[in-house]
Every structure is written in structure tokens, then in C-alpha cells.
User: Fold this.
Amino acid sequence: QTQLEESGGGAVQAGGSLRLSCIGSGPPTSTGSMAWFRRAPGRQREGVAAISDDDSPVYAASVKGRFTISRGAGEKTLYLQLDNLKPEDTAVYYCAHSRYHSAELRSDYYCSWGQGTQVTVSS
Assistant:
């Protein structure tokens, strides 16, 4: 199973930016699709952005135009650029990997998960 590790979280003021990174290792050797999810206090985990194995992205309506998902040089390296952050973006952000191909925002599509990185946005 793929091992994933996120980094890049932190505390910023509203309107600020952060860049999250996710480094993956281990099987399967295929690229697969990847995604970012988040869980805010007292709320269910929600899909934020996903990217297919041929680099087609999808975004949740709440972040479209503000967040950008992209892949790095490594086959399981993933980034999320967060711009124009709002207090409602405060959450733990998780990286996920799927052995399948499509960009999906459903958590059951993904079989490997990181431990998460905290993003806190103050007003």
C-alpha cells in the first residue's frame, strides 16, 4: 500500500496563501489518481481537489478559482496551492491515492491516506 506524507500546513490570515505537499512511496507502481481532502472541526471529511492519472483536475465548488492541484516530478508527488484563503478553509488537509485513473472527490475511491496537515486561517 502506498505511504503518503503531507507537509506545508500552517497558520495564515485571511487572503493569504499556502502550498501543501504530499510525497508518496511504495506500491502500486502505477501513477493512479490522487486527491486532497479536508476535515474541519465538527464536520465530515470533504473532497477539495483531485487529479487523474493523465493530469486532469477537478475541484469542489467552494475552492474553485482559489486552489490549484498539481503533480510533481515523482509519480506520487502532489501539491495543492491555496490562495485567497478564508477562515472556512480551516481544516486538517489529507492527501489520498487511488490505484484507479479518474479524478474523483469521493473518499471511498481512495485506498491510501496520509496523516494530514493542519491549515488554520484567521480573520
About this structure: The radius of gyration is 13 Å. The chain has no helices and eleven strands. The mean pLDDT is 94.
